[in-house]
Structures
1.
Amino acid sequence: MLAVDNDLPPTGTKDIELCGDVSVVRSELAGVVSVNMPSRSESGISYARVWHNGVETDHVMLSDLAPTLRAPRPWQGLALNGVIAAALLLVVAIRELVHWCGLFGFREAEHEGSGIVSFSDGRRVDATSAATLRAGPVLVRGALPEAPRASYRERAELATAALVIRDPYELGSERDRRAHRVMFASAAALTIALGSSALLAAAWLFGLPL
């Protein structure tokens, strides 16, 4: 068996059949030589001798080979893609969260029609942004002009205000949609990040360099 080491290729991993059932496996990279001889008895117990870095041993632990190995490339690729995907989803979640926060701060008002909006305190303003909305309850955001309460409906007597006016139903629906997007993107980013971290942690626990 001592001559086997010289007869095998100097590098790489090779499985060579010797003497019929005897096989020799050598890995120059890992520094391991294994000679396996299946049992010919009824017990079925095979016999093997293993050398690691020139020293015979009963077994070779993964930690012994870790310095010569690397995390599988699919693990590295999945982890890298996972980090990128999680970062993109996090950006989406933050953007949707900003938009969602911008959907608050409205006050209730009544659209009388033709862009005239009245408030519970009696003030009425001419808001052109409400002209396309149907008459009825609306949600308004913006600074109201300081003007005396108007007692007539004519536009000439109403102060003009630049307001953000939304339909209550549409605004509520948009809040729900953006809230769901924030939750979905955040959950997906967290799941992908945990999955990528698990692959890297597994490689680290086994001592595999990245």
Note: Helices lie at 4-7, 62-65, 73-101, 168-205.
2.
Amino acid sequence: MFHRVNKPDATPGSDKPRRRRCKNCGELFPKTRHNREFCSDACRKEHHRHGGAFVPLKDACQKFINIRLAGVATELQLSREKAEQLRETAERLITGLQEAAAVLKRERQQLDSMTTELRQARRQETQAALLLQNAMTVFQKQATEDAQQQHQQQHQQQQHPKTDIVQP
């Protein structure tokens, strides 16, 4: 009968237990027996089911994933650069729009000022037209009165001709 010898799990002078790497998954596990090769019964069964090909396949998958991640990282970097370019373009557009808005505001103020001046000019034109109309009315009345007076004078002269006394 074999007797179990209690060997320490740690190396002499160390508080850490001895560890071994699993032949299937590569995880470190505490070494409890000298012939233990797998971290769990599931890893042992998987290794025997798939043979030793599983680890190389797993490593190949990991390499493929790393290559794809590098490609994605490159694309992400390009996307970041494109985003930075788009942000700069957007900032330039916003600055341009702000400048255009300032120009439009100045032009609007000038237009408002010109509109006010035009309204004043129209009021003055209306006042001048009213004064001209009043003057024309007064002139027409005066002309009518003058014409009536002349007509009356002519009529009176025809009815009462002046006789000039001629002295011998």
Note: Residues 54-159 form the longest helix (106 residues).
